[in-house]
Design a protein that fits this description.
The protein contains 12 helices and 28 strands. It is an alpha+beta fold and 638 residues long. Among the domains are: 164 residues, Lysozyme, CATH 1.10.530; 163 residues, Lysozyme-like (3-Layer(aba) Sandwich), CATH 3.40.80.10; 96 residues, no CATH class. α3 packs across α8 and α11 crosses α12.
């Protein structure tokens, strides 16, 4: 796994003032010593403490900000009471004009999360505010918790004790309420001890955990935790990743309404092309309650933040209602991750690891390439018609670490281009890239906390003071995009590939929503990689772009209403080019009744129209293949 440590050290030590839109952070000395001191004081083997912290936070401080499950600091001490209550997402998860969306009624009440910070404060005598914000104190609190869990189990303790005997305490530290989830977390901790780790933290501290290949946990301690068992027989998960089966209901609600997903037979009936990454905007327990509501929307999997526990709700052969775009729903699997894109500024390592294992397994099983043309965020899913663009969701948001996530999938970003090959793949150093977002809490103009991000900002000229680009879908009044966290109308994200439009000094321009968008990309600290591939070039002055790849009207059989191919409010002008990510045949999965009784139900309608999937803005979009030429990217590159 790559670390890009030298780049991170330079950005942190020298400060980020040389990079527009970022902020500097002074290093804190002695993080390795902090772990050693805390382990000795609490009587915890140092390797155990380091490995637990790595699985929670990768030893990062996250500047004292809470995780998406209200955990603080390197040891992820949980303080759910300090984070705002759940606000479940709403809207049309189906995204199909052929069947009206019926929203669920009622009020969703958030359930309490973990609250380990209180016991850590009692054990150490340190104020809770200090435990949240001071890394050294946080590590002491986590060590004290581990030691207390070991004593509760009656297991042998002491800094010099055998790490193998700490399996039960490590499993309890996860906060999991099921035996398989606790075991999964503990297994990952012991795998980390066996493999070792070495990285530079987000505040510039090098921390090392030497590999101990021979360490073998004593798993018998797990049984003393008294955790419940779960149903896993119906799940589709890789070996070694326990998954709980919590089915989403499929039932007739009367008056032609049913929920909350559709039956199918994928991939035999229709190829699965995408895996869509979401965050829940609610606690795990609230989310599980929502997916079991027959009148609500659905998704295939939910992953818990604190321990990476996975629950499956809809079989991959069936179609969940999660993306707000029926074409994408019918050709995708949706995975929800517990968290709040704005209020929680970081996602746990345990959740990243579980998700990466699940996605890698599903991609191999379903034949999905492990790249950002196919592993996409909900924020990359386009609206289906112009009126729906503004209401599309923007999760998992700017704080999702795509670079680390791809590394965990064993699919790191590799390109073979040069400054003359005409394409560029976005790839900033997450910790060093800190755009000045607003609106995380409070007013839309309130600054967000300083934090790493996978998104870069685009400007109308090669200057950090130049205005942002226009997005006619998000800002129909013609005003420019903003730095509001949810406003991605002038942003690119890690792994996305764009056609180069121009270069000037340390700045690179790309084609984006019909405009030139400039981002800072100095050779000394590049924020993108030169790439090669295909580009789409229009055959006439202006061509339409679409949010779904539906077949032409003639392809629909008698009795089946035509689903219009509606152009979005954007246009693709002559003289521009956009990176091609996929070539797809126009198709529409007809599913509008509970029992398949409508004409043409549960069938895939395919036509003669083919589409090129292009990276047109922050979201992917489609153009009719007959409207464009596909050319190797070096041809005509600036």
């Amino acid at each position: 796994m790559r670390t890009r440590a030298a780049t991170v050290i330079a950005a942190v030590v020298l400060g980020a003032a040389a990079v527009p839109g970022t902020a500097a952070s002074a290093p804190v000395s002695g993080r390795q010593q902090d772990f050693a001191d805390a382990a000795k004081a609490a009587g915890v083997p140092q390797d155990v403490l380091l490995a637990v912290s790595y699985l929670e936070s990768r030893w990062d401080t996250n500047r004292g900000l809470p995780s998406t499950s209200a955990g603080y600091g390197p040891m992820h001490l949980a303080d759910a009471a300090s984070v705002a209550s759940a606000r479940p997402s709403t809207g049309d998860g189906r995204g199909d004009d052929a069947r009206p969306f019926v929203a669920a009624a009622g009020t969703v009440v958030a359930t309490p999360g973990l609250q380990t910070l209180d016991r850590a404060a009692a054990l150490t005598g340190v104020d809770k505010a200090v435990l949240r914000g001071d890394a050294r104190a946080n590590i002491r609190g986590g060590a004290a918790l581990l030691a207390a869990y070991q004593r509760d189990l009656g297991a042998p303790g002491g800094a010099g004790s055998d790490p193998a005997a700490w399996y039960g305490a490590v499993a309890r530290y996860s906060g999991a309420d099921t035996a398989d989830a606790a075991a999964q977390f503990a297994d990952e901790v012991y795998d980390t001890m066996r493999e070792g780790a070495d990285r530079v933290t987000d505040d510039g501290q090098r921390v090392t955990l030497a590999a101990r290949p021979s360490v073998g946990p004593q798993k018998s301690w797990l049984s003393r935790l008294g955790l419940r068992s779960t149903s896993t027989s119906d799940t589709e998960c890789p070996p070694g990743l326990p998954c709980e089966w919590i089915p989403a209901p499929y039932q007739d609600l009367g008056n032609g309404d049913y929920g909350n997903h559709d039956l199918s037979d994928r991939p035999a009936r229709q190829r699965v092309q995408y895996i869509v990454i979401h965050d829940t905007e609610a606690t795990y327990d609230t989310t599980i309650g929502l997916v079991q509501d027959p009148a609500y929307v659905s998704w295939n999997y939910t992953i818990r933040s604190a321990d990476g526990h996975v629950a499956q709700h809809v079989k991959t052969k069936d179609v969940a209602w999660h993306a707000g775009n029926w074409y994408v729903n019918a050709t995708s699997v949706g995975i929800e991750h517990e968290g709040f894109a704005a209020e929680g500024a970081w996602y746990t390592e345990a959740m990243y690891r579980s998700s990466a294992k699940l996605v890698r397994y599903l991609a191999g099983r379903l034949g999905i390439p492990l790249d950002r043309n196919h592993i996409i965020g909900h924020d990359n899913v386009p609206g289906t018609v112009p009126s729906g663009v503004r209401g599309m969701h923007w999760d998992p948001g700017p704080y999702w670490d795509w670079d680390h996530y791809l590394d965990l999938m064993h699919a790191p970003i590799h390109t073979t281009g040069t400054p003359h090959t005409g394409l560029v793949t976005i790839d900033p150093v997450y910790d060093a890239n800190r755009p000045a977002f607003t609106g995380c809490t409070g007013a839309a103009t309130d600054p967000c906390p300083d934090h790493g991000s996978s998104q870069l900002i685009l400007h109308t000229a090669p200057s950090a003071s130049a205005p942002l680009l226009l997005d006619a879908g998000l800002h129909p009044d013609g005003s420019p995009s903003t730095m509001l966290l949810s406003d991605h109308g002038s942003r690119v994200a890690t792994g996305q590939t764009y056609a180069v439009a121009d270069r000037r000094g340390d700045w690179t321009a790309i084609w984006y929503l019909g405009q030139k968008g400039w981002f800072y990309n100095p050779p000394s600290a590049p924020t993108a990689k030169w790439a090669t591939g295909l580009v789409a070039v229009p055959k006439r002055d202006t061509i339409p772009v679409y949010g779904r790849a539906y077949p032409e009207q003639a392809a629909y059989p008698a009795g089946v209403p035509y689903q219009p191919i509606t152009p979005l409010q954007y246009t693709f002008p002559a003289g521009q080019r956009y990176a091609v990510g996929n070539i797809v045949q126009g198709e529409y999965y007809r599913a509008v009744t509970f029992d398949g009784s409508s004409p043409g139900d549960w069938t895939v309608i395919r036509g003669d129209t083919w589409y090129a999937q292009i990276q047109f803005g922050h979201r992917l979009m489609y153009v009719n293949l007959a409207d464009v030429q596909l050319l190797p990217s070096p041809l005509g590159a600036p």
